[in-house]
Design goal:
Distance between the termini: 46 Å
CATH superfamily of the largest domain: Type I PLP-dependent aspartate aminotransferase-like (Major domain)
Helix content: 40-55%
CATH class of the largest domain: Alpha Beta
Number of domains: 2
Radius of gyration: 21 Å
Number of strands: 14
Shape: globular
Order of helices and strands: HHEHHEHEHEHEHEEEHHHEEEHEEEHHH
Strand order of the largest sheet: 2-8-7-6-5-3-4
Strand content: 5-15%
């Protein structure tokens, strides 16, 4: 009975980020103490004003335009202009049920090959597989902050030797928490070879540098941008995202709109009105406090975990770190993470889930296992938080880090 499933679908597995969350929940239900460093979800509450607007519009039941509420697309257009310096007109923006769906539609519409840096978010490759687009990996290194060099990219493009290529870039990056420092060089190669770029900017507002930089600044005519509410405003379960298309690629946008009309029709109506407030309102205080907490907690983990047995870069954005454990005890990073979970209760995701070879002992660590609402209410400064504050408001992160440190000493 299984032979009626397409081969490219039958070989897929559930998303590892969602799978680890389910696994942790089951372990917790058995009474086991688990430190959930595996699931990348914002720990902070959605700002009250945005929730209030959702409530005020809960009675609205009519379908909205399939491309999305015009005033929401206008708000996102202005948001992108302010943040990137590039104009993506509202006519070139489509609202989707999460940025994940936006990227899936992109893969389905696109006829060509995909270039992914390793590490890359767990769903890029499976989505390409669903759409029958071939994936080509570029393995990066800690020396280049886990992003490809321009030389690597050019060599990969020449090797593929095909006309239609999309490079996916995600900065701040999931799983490394790093920020790309060579956007200009990457954009130059992309432009020279006439390939497109998807800039996944879902973590753009959780950036620990003073100024955010988008690759669209260097290559606006060839850069798609995806984003949404999930990470910066704590609204992962709301499922609202967007996809912005360069003005010279109207045919691609037309294809996305057609796919949207034949799949989800339109995005939740009350939610779109609430999202207008999210993109128009001033939430700088909320964001500054959130980023201060995440940066401080991330630095705590980094400072305590780094050693001669653990290579790790400091946190630069999002809420991830990607430690490499120097050992020869395990054959795969999955085996290593299973051992860590069994012996310490710390749940991590193996580097192999993000495109690395299985024998590379890397793991993704999400340092969000704390009550963000309580943390936000009890700090009033944007200055770096000391260890005592972190121990008080992020005890699971502290205890889990300590257990991971002790485990690493056995390597």
């Amino acid at each position: 009975m299984e032979n009626y499933i397409k081969k490219n679908i039958a070989s897929l597995k559930p998303s590892s980020t969602l799978a680890i969350n389910e696994k942790v929940k089951k372990l917790l239900n058995t009474g086991k103490k688990v430190f959930n460093f595996g699931f990348g979800q914002s720990p902070f509450p959605i700002p009250e004003k945005i929730v209030s607007v959702l409530k005020d519009n809960a009675h609205k039941k009519d379908y909205l335009p399939m491309q999305g509420l015009p005033q929401l697309r206008e708000a996102i257009s202005k948001y992108l202009l302010k943040r990137t310096g590039i104009t993506y007109e509202k006519e070139n923006i489509i609202i989707t049920p999460g940025s994940k769906e936006a990227m899936l539609l992109m893969h389905i519409a696109f006829d060509g090959d995909i270039i992914l840096p390793a590490p890359s978010w767990v769903s890029y490759q499976p989505q390409a597989q669903i759409a029958l687009n071939k994936v080509h990996w570029i393995e990066t290194s800690i020396d280049n902050n886990w992003f490809p060099t321009s030389k690597q990219l050019e060599e990969k493009i020449k090797k593929i030797n095909k006309k239609n290529i999309i490079l996916i870039i995600n900065s701040p990056n999931n799983p490394s928490g790093s920020i790309c420092n060579n956007f200009g060089q990457i954009a130059e190669i992309a432009k020279k070879n006439n390939i497109n770029i998807l800039s996944d900017e879902i973590y753009a507002d959780i950036n620990f540098k003073k100024n955010y930089e988008s690759i669209s600044k260097f290559y606006p005519e060839g850069t798609f941008i995806s984003g949404g509410l999930s990470k910066w405003c704590g609204a992962g379960g709301w499922r609202l995202g967007f996809f912005a298309v360069p003005k010279n690629q109207s045919n691609f946008l037309k294809a996305l709109k057609t796919l949207a009309s034949e799949s989800y029709s339109t995005v939740n109506t009350p939610l779109q009105f609430a999202a207008v407030e999210a993109y128009r309102g001033d939430y700088s205080d909320y964001l500054n406090k959130s980023k201060n907490i995440l940066k401080s907690v991330g630095n705590y983990v980094y400072n305590n975990l780094k050693s001669n047995k653990v290579l790790i870069n400091p946190p630069q954005g999002a809420f991830y770190l990607m430690p490499e454990f120097l050992n020869s005890k395990f054959k795969t990073s999955n085996d290593m993470c299973e051992d860590i979970l069994y012996k310490t209760g710390v749940a991590l995701l193996p580097g192999s889930d993000f495109g690395f070879k299985p024998n590379k002992m890397l793991a993704r660590l999400s340092y969000t296992d704390f009550n963000g609402e309580i943390f936000l209410k009890n700090i009033s400064t944007t200055k770096s938080l000391d260890d005592e504050v972190i121990k008080k408001y992020a005890p699971n992160v502290v205890e889990g880090t300590n257990k991971l440190v002790e485990w690493s000493k056995t390597l």
